Amino acid sequence: MRQPLIAGNWKMNGSLDSVSTLVEGIKAGLDSVTTAEMAVCPPYVYLPAVATLIGGTSISLGAQDVSDQEAGAYTGEVAPGMLTDVGCKYVIVGHSERRSIYGESDAFTASKFAAARKAGLVPILCVGELLEEREQGITEQVVSRQLDAVIDLEGVDALAGAVIAYEPVWAIGTGKTASPDQAQDVHSYIRAKLAALDSGVAEKVRILYGGSMNAGNAAELLAMTDIDGGLIGGASLKAADFLAIGTAANR
Ligand code: 13P
């Protein structure tokens, strides 16, 4: 059985004060979450503070992005080894905001994925189509192309030790969630694509859904066969909502 993962992507939100309040709130209700692994992905600068706050709990730490380089003259970048150094287990790569706002390509995302794995991080690889791509009926081709960039570079085996997040771009931050059936269709497509290459990897990899997932819609999404958790934006900034999503994964 795949343990559900509920990961909060805080994006560029928070302050030292507010992240501390948020983490204390999550810790206070953590006993209500019986099955899922809970993870938080704060902005880089708050990682050490959050690592301290979650010390001794079952909450995992992740970063929102990473450099594809190990060290050196790369002003403004943060190396994968630095993330493990401050206690990260996970790192998000290829989030649609990185792809669309900062122009990060499939190939660049794949090189970040490779660098993260090399340092012992578990990459959370984001894939997903734009609204116009869904309307053109090319959702599967887009997701397939995004996955192939990683598979071509690292091999399908690399995905066994990773997490995939299906995030339809039109559902991110819009309040417009994919229906459980719409999400399940893409999740099962992804798993079948991987199964054609390696059934063991397909069985093992966790595929999260992301895009306006909240306390009200989490249960029906998480009930779908191929949805193994969520990558939560807005609703992860409120402890009660984030915990409610966590408890919606109780089995
Ligand atoms: P929202 O939950 O705010 O739609 O964001 C989803 C997301 O982008 C998580 O990475």
What's the short version?
This protein has helices spanning 16-29, 47-54, 80-85, 96-101, 106-118, 131-135, 139-154, 180-197, 199-204, 218-222, 239-248, and strands at 5-9, 37-41, 60-63, 90-93, 122-127, 163-166, 206-210, 229-232. By secondary structure, it is of the alpha/beta class.
Q: In total, how many domains does the architecture comprise?
A: 1
The oligomeric state is single chain
The CATH architecture classification is Alpha-Beta Barrel
Shape: globular
Name the ligand types.
1,3-dihydroxyacetonephosphate
Q: Hey, roughly how much beta strand do the residues contain?
A: 5-15%
Give the helices and strands as they follow along the chain. EHEHEHEHHEHHEHHEHEH
Q: Which runs of at least 5 residues are low in confidence (pLDDT < 50)? A: none
The number of E-state strands comes to 8
Major sheet: arrangement of strands: 1-2-3-4-5-6-7-8
Notes on the structure:
The chain is an alpha/beta fold. The chain has one domain: Alpha-Beta Barrel (TIM Barrel), CATH 3.20.20.70. The chain is built from eleven helices and eight strands. The protein has helices at 16-29, 47-54, 80-85, 96-101, 106-118, 131-135, 139-154, 180-197, 199-204, 218-222, 239-248; strands spanning 5-9, 37-41, 60-63, 90-93, 122-127, 163-166, 206-210, 229-232. It is globular. The site of 1,3-dihydroxyacetonephosphate has 14 residues, from β8. 1,3-dihydroxyacetonephosphate binds at residues 9, 95, 167, 172-173, 210-213, 231-235.
